Fold this sequence. Notes:
- Chain A is mainly β and about 120 residues long.
- Chain A has no helices and eleven strands.
- Chain A has strands at about 5, 10, 20-25, 35-40, 45-50, 60, 70-75, 80-85, 90-100, 105-110, 115-120.
- Chain B has no helices and eleven strands.
- Chain B is about 0% helix and about 50% strand.
- Chain B is globular.
- The interface between A and B is medium-sized, with 21 and 21 residues.
Amino acid sequence: xxxLVESGxxxxxxxxxxxLSCAASGFTFDDYAMHWVRQAPGKGLEWVSxxxxxxxSIGYADSVKGRFTISRDNAKNSLxxxxxxxxAEDTALYYCAKDGYSSGSFFQHWGQGTLVTVSS
Amino acid sequence: xIVLTQSPGTLSLSPGERATLSCRASQSVSSSYLAWYQQxxxxxxxxxxxxxxxxxxxxxxxxxxxxxxxxxxxxxxRLEPEDxxxxxxxxxxxxxxxxxxxxKVEIK
Lengths: 120, 108
């Protein structure tokens, strides 16, 4: 069974940093691209960033480009999101999602999310 | 970026009725790279359909997807009580991937 468990969320002041982690199990991690998708309270879904199976292809939404960095460690079956210069509008539930393939496509499996709140 | 517009915003139906949800793209979605997701309150989204019409593993056959180019449809043939939820479409043919704003299917 595919399991994705996010961690690292919390309350942080504007301008500060936070690092999210996603622990994956139940599938061959380095066969698939991975993503972060977020959902602001009461709002819809927004793709944040994605990374291919071998980290050779990385993409970001314009809203986070230059501030967020995605990475993965295939030896540890883990996905990360380093979030710097956080803003109030980054407040959201952040989901880790497994791609359907080795490069970017649909989101086949989702974690339960970790909540990031940016507020002074 | 491709903008996806979902309609209607809310669909009020009774169990057993047919639900038809629309997703319209601002430009053609290449190779029908369109997916549909279901999200219930307090839960993560669940993949229903990918490639515009392929059902994901374990999805009941009352869910079907169709369409190409700029117009896509998710149909639920007969609504079950567990189908009342919010549904999102997503295109992954062009970067960045984008989602529609969602359609809420509520009990009438």
